[in-house]
Amino acid sequence: MDLRLPVELDDLRTLVRRVVVDHLLPHEAALERHGTLPADVWAELEGRSRALGLHALGVPAEHGGAGLDTLGQLVAAEEMGRVAVGFRHIVGTPAGAPVVAAFGTPEQHRRYLQPWLAGERWGAWAATEPGAGSDLGAMTTTARRDGAGWVLSGGKHFVTGLDRADFVITFAKTSRDRGVRGLTAFLVDLDRAGVVRGREQVMMGRGGLHSFELHFDDVVLPDGARLGDVDGGFALLIKDVSRMRLLLAGHCLGVAARLLHLAAEWGRSRVQFGRPIGEFGALQWSLADTAAELVTVRAATYQAAVLVDAGQEARAESAIAKAFASELAFRAADRTLQIFGGSGYCRDLPVEALFRAVRLWRIAEGTSEIQRMLVGRELDGGWRPAGMGIGTEQLEEVGAS
User: Fold this and answer.
1) Is the N or C terminus of the chain more exposed, i.e. has fewer CB atoms within 10 Å?
2) Considering the chain, what percentage of its residues have pLDDT values greater than 70?
3) Left if phi > 0, otherwise alpha if psi is -120 to 50, otherwise beta: which for 152?
4) What is the domain partition of the chain in residue ranges?
């Protein structure tokens, strides 16, 4: 398998890294310290991203995006992992925008997608509920028919970006007894009667990202607010699930790479007992473990992206990448903080903030436990790992010998 990237993706990596180094990292400490940046700074960063064509990488070109495949988006996600997660909307794809592009009507494209990508409107993804995280079939938000329209009732939480959004993509039960097969998606303007923004749910390691509760008190919607088919919401939720897992894995790879760099540099400059601590075997082993895991998980993640772009679902491969990349990032943060010692606990250095931030990734986009469960189900159904020159038949032959 040829893992060399096309020259255009090497160029993309260089471009995104320059944006990170020259324009985002200088604001990272302020974002972490204050939880946001001045409006004019956000406007400048977002405008630069749109001008460079980096604001909607995963949206098809006919809708105004870059139309990149999974591999291209992964390259950008990895580079963006090298800076605070609060900048994630600067380069990438707005959460939910590909779903609107794929399932929306021409009117929904005109009213929501196009102004969203132009920076004139802002959307948020509202799926999770207090009793429905991993178990999406446990959603209690409902939408009942009312003449030609719908009445939406219930609530969501962990709605990130609600502080600046003017509409959300949300999901509700339209057939109560069908579990996830009874969900329908809706586009809901936040100025509609009955839509109530709830309290902010303050989280650690999320400077620049603000999450809120959201309540729907008998919100009357026209049928034109429905996104996709009735009872077709689960198809929207899982359409890009492999891609989203791989992009989160890519972010974790970028975090781990930055942490490895910080730890190695600290080992060269920090002197104890008369010599740099990087000369001590214990530190070298710690760095070696992070480097080995980074190389291994990175190869698996990029291979899975190639499979997705080749038209395969790659459910197991993407689940493996997501689980092990998120756990790698956490171990890298822990090892790096140990190497920095007490200095790593200080907010003067980025290690402390990165340590707090990485803990979420073993939970978001499906917990590590859920990913392992999915891989187990795939194995039980006959899936076997293949690639890197060892195909399924060869593995089965080795197992039988």
Assistant:
1) C
2) 96
3) beta
4) 7-93, 123-236, 240-400
The string of DSSP codes covering 326-338 is HHHHHHHHHHHHH
- Distances in Å between the Cα of 218 and the Cα atoms of 127, 175, 192, 221, 233 are 18, 17, 10, 9, 20
The pair of three-digit structure tokens given for residue 185, joined into one six-digit string: 């998606």
Specify whether 365 is catalytic.
Answer: yes
The DSSP secondary-structure symbol of 279 reads G
352 pLDDT band (50/70/90 cuts)? Answer: very high
Give the whole-number percent of the chain exceeding pLDDT 90: 86
Mean pLDDT across 218-223:
98
Cα–Cα dist 266/268, whole Å: 5
Pairing of strands 226-227, 211-221: unpaired
Identify the band that residue 172 occupies on the pLDDT scale cut at 50, 70 and 90. Answer: very high
- Residue 295 CB partners (closer than 8 Å, separation 6+): none
Q: Name the fold adopted by 123-236.
A: Butyryl-CoA Dehydrogenase, subunit A; domain 2 (2.40.110)
Reported for 371-375, long-range contacts at CB under 8 A and 24+ positions apart, including other chains, are: 371/245, 371/319, 371/320, 371/322, 371/323, 372/319, 372/323, 374/315, 374/316, 374/319, 375/316, 375/319, 375/320, 375/323
Q: Give the pLDDT band (50/70/90) at residue 238.
A: confident
Q: How far is CA 337 from the centre of its chain?
A: 24
- Asked whether 368 and 390 are in contact (CB, 8 A), the reply is no
CATH superfamily of 7-93: Acyl-CoA dehydrogenase/oxidase, N-terminal domain (1.10.540.10)
Q: Are 61 and 67 in contact (CB under 8 A)?
A: yes
CATH node for 240-400: 1.20.140.10
The enclosing H or E element of 103 equals helix 97-103
Q: Are 69 and 309 in contact (CB under 8 A)?
A: yes
Q: Sorting pLDDT into bands at 50, 70 and 90, what band is 153?
A: very high
Residue 229 DSSP code: S
**Rounded alpha-carbon distances, angstroms, from residue 324 to 92, 103, 198, 233, 269:** 22, 31, 34, 29, 31
pLDDT tens column, 182-201: 999 999 999 999 999 999 99
